[in-house]
Amino acid sequence: MNKLFSKFWLFAVLTVFAITACEDDNGTTPEEELDAERWVTVAGAVMGDNPGDGNGGTLIYAVNYEDAIDPTKTINLYDEGEPVKSNRTARLQVSEDGNTMFNIAYAGENGGEFSRFAVEGGANYVEEDVTVSIAQYAGTSPRWAKLYDGDKTGIAVNVANIAANNAENEEDFKYYRGTATVLALDLQNVLISNYKQYEIALSEAEEAEGHAIFRLDAPVLNQAGDKLLIGTWMRKYDPATGDRESEWERLGTKTVVVDYPSLENPTVITSTVAFGDCSGYRSNVNFLAEDGSIYQATQRDPNGSHILKITSANEYDNSYVFSLDAALGVEDVYVQTWRYVKNGIGYIAYRHGDSDQSYVARVDLNNRTAEKVMDIPNDADLSLHQYQGFLVYGDYLLMAIAPIGKDGNIYVFNSQTGEVEKGATLANKPGNHYIGTF
Prior knowledge:
Elements: H1 3-22, E1 39-45, E2 58-64, H2 65-68, E3 74-75, H3 77-80, E4 82-83, E5 91-94, E6 100-104, E7 113-119, E8 125-133, H4 135-138, E9 143-146, E10 153-164, E11 176-186, E12 191-198, H5 204-208, E13 211-221, E14 227-236, E15 254-259, E16 267-270, E17 286-288, E18 294-297, E19 307-310, H6 324-328, E20 333-342, E21 345-352, E22 359-364, E23 369-372, E24 391-393, E25 396-401, E26 408-414, E27 420-426, E28 433-437
Parallel strand pairs: 3-27
Antiparallel strand pairs: 1-2, 1-28, 2-4, 5-6, 6-7, 7-8, 9-10, 10-11, 11-12, 13-14, 14-15, 15-16, 17-18, 18-19, 20-21, 21-22, 22-23, 24-25, 25-26, 26-27
Keywords: Signal
Protein name: DUF4374 domain-containing protein
């Protein structure tokens, strides 16, 4: 038993004696999160045509928490794991207690199908006899995330059929827009509880230049529970030809805000601090912190990735400037994914410059500082561009870190002290990579 697990076990024992005194309004205690028997699902992406592309599908395997953080254990995901229903890398979500997996199949014949699985250890994921397809509303490759509302709701988003207003007539050009879908899934009853479709307008001047919202992703609920904030990925089209432009002067980072739970009244807020997108890639990049603000990481920013702050009033705080280039002392930082933990501390996976190698840094949102974690592999084949699963327990965060085609480990980060410990070994196979712990 390593020293990290000893700490967790002590907390769990103390819980037995203190549970009646420590209950919160939901009848749970922080210490209960430290159950050594909680299932931890490890996910990996299988190579398709090229190493690291993840196009061969997704495998999952569950171990208990004690084994996940034990460096003497080995997880043979690629020999023993269970395939997930998805044509490409699945977008997975897990219940707060680790006992249920949620999945929306990405592309393929089952694309857009939502399903739920009971986690029973090892490769035993038992699909429940309930499914629902959201394909007719949000397409066969929707982006989605589970809200932090007690496993009640998932939000899927999509933008489709981007076209000019004058595509079929002689009207003067005014804009390129697609039809946006915002859809709420009832995760407990496995049904579509609400959805709305609309065009989301930018300013008249921005649209006249051909700017448009190309993708929505990374939805998060504000502290008041009355607004949903959704990240955007922007594109620009040539108004004269309709061709997509590859280089252009980017607009400030934009977030869509809609009323919740009605999903109505979409508006767009704009940062003047950063000029990248805030849609993430395979995981969320928008997180609600204890101060009521939402912190958001950007990508494809010409000045390097930033972490931006959206206040409880659902507006950008443009006085909050957190450049990761400046904080890390390198150029052209690109945040591949990140996860907030607590007390202003989070961890980012990033690359920088022309290199595809990934690194991890501990970020302090309050002091706007970042420090590269040195206790993980410094390997040119470490690529976290498809990473999506972080497991947060109190002060701790778990990540599955393995270079493409090489063995790795589960790493345990103490967000408050900065300490890092190595957990179970992750056995690998050529071309494959690990994409999360859940």
